[in-house]
């Protein structure tokens, strides 16, 4: 049966007596066919009549009675159904197997305030059971009784007045069967008490015998039957009222008193109203108190959710036909397992609709937008559907299946959550590093607050994302948060280190520029070689370095450097500064440039007179004397340059100026000294203050002598 057919089956205005359905469901649906097979039409029928989604809000009743006693006629009058009825002139069986139809109440739709029948009453019309057509088919009678008992709240027993008191009558045989199969059911199921109502409708009531008397007669017969049954162990002393309630009513002859009949069925209809336990009064022997008591006591309901009814009924029928022991609690559990699985699958489909796109896009590098709310929504949708639909089934099974479903969905969400955290983590670190690098370039300034603000901002974003995906704390992210914080701090330290290193390099460069300036630097000072040269250079050195150090300290504070980092950097800066100075001094004292300078001094004395006028040597002038004096003056300058020292031969306080190596810096400092050259910043090293080694002094002196001698020779020649 396709769905289109099912949908077309619904038609509220087609004029069938049912008023709801047409086509294949004109007469309801055949649950058990004439071959005693369970048909598969019930789901479509329940769906077309909208009972499938009713949960527990439906009722199921069955009618029993001898063949051709007007059962179908009664049902059609009571419930506005259209079960086939035997025509008055040919007596043969019309109802084959078991039919089911939904009751409708025209009164309910015309005026909701008028008293009316309960909604969603499913009525089962059971094939006549006196075996006229089927022969002595006790087997089917037994099976259909068992089936009806396992499913129905109310069993209507249709009986003619003149049959009352006929203990051997066909109906009494039927009731004996009902009681027997009931005991059979309860043998397996002693824990739960399934009550049912046997509702006797006494037909063709002439009126001579009051209902009360008929009732007493029937109850006496029923008790007789009950006493006569051999009861299974444990139920020997049980009473009929342990399992059944009884209600009785009479109806006039339909053909002889048609108007009366109509009136009475309309009245009877109202007993099939929604009933509460409080309204119903029962006598001690299980007979419902007044004639007008409602018949649907909650205790009768089999608690099979409507959407599980087809499967349950099918299973029950299968167990019955296979002659297996019918164990209702087990059946309910099996049903629960089956339905919970079905519902679970449907829930996973809903979940998939929302989650699969995210799973396909799963990527640990990209933060997926809207993931958190979607995870929450998907889980909510799936779980609430399951809770609502599966929650009506066997509690133990439901709980287990709910846990299974939750675990399954959570496992899938967990994968997304973890990937999202990883991506958010990477994102946070990337944005952090990027923002800070840009920030340094833009302002070059307050690194400390830049780090603090950026850190707070990216962490806020991270936490927001993690929180959104945490399903209200179901998933935790504290470890990942710690890892992000740690990495941010490491990044900050590294960025600060890089920034400090850049700063140091800049400062070193600017010191080099300052030291090598021709205007006021070392080169300028070297123009006048004198005992005050090195003291002046030292002053230049210490003043320049100190001013750079104070600039640096300011900057490194802004970088949020630790005391130790700052000390280390200052220490390094001072050492580097000295190396720079030393390299410039080495440059200035290279042999060629030094010779040029010395020759300049020499020339000033030898080639020019005291007025700065070039000498023109004449014969007889004291060339030798002037030469010797000039040479001597210059040669005295060389030792002045040899050692870097302050006034009165004092060594410069370089070690004090650089200061002690900060704790823990030895290694770092050692690392800086990678080249195996001797450390020129260590006062212990001979090289630190030695600008000219004795060897260089000798070669310098020789070189100078050669050039000076040449000047002498030239002068001599000139005369
Ligand atoms: P079922 O086999 O029990 O379902 O009986 P039907 O509803 O098909 O009716 C069988 C015959 O009994 C039909 O010919 C009806 O007209 C007739 N019938 C229906 N209602 C009554 C009634 O109240 N009294 C009597 N005597 N006959 C009835
Ligand atoms: Mg019938």
Automatic annotation (TrEMBL):
GTP binds at residues 65-72. Residues 55-313 form the GB1/RHD3-type G domain. GO terms for biological process: endoplasmic reticulum membrane fusion. Keywords: Endoplasmic reticulum, GTP-binding, Hydrolase, Membrane, Nucleotide-binding, Transmembrane, Transmembrane helix. One of its GO terms (cellular component) is endoplasmic reticulum membrane. The keyword Nucleotide-binding applies. Residues 1-719 are cytoplasmic. GO terms for molecular function: GTP binding; GTPase activity. It is found in: Endoplasmic reticulum membrane. The keyword GTP-binding applies. Residues 8-20 have a biased composition (Low complexity). It is a multi-pass membrane protein. Residues 1-20 are annotated as: Disordered. Belongs to the TRAFAC class dynamin-like GTPase superfamily. GB1/RHD3 GTPase family. RHD3 subfamily. This is Dynamin-like GTPase that mediates homotypic ER fusion. The lineage of its organism: Eukaryota, Fungi, Dikarya, Ascomycota, Pezizomycotina.
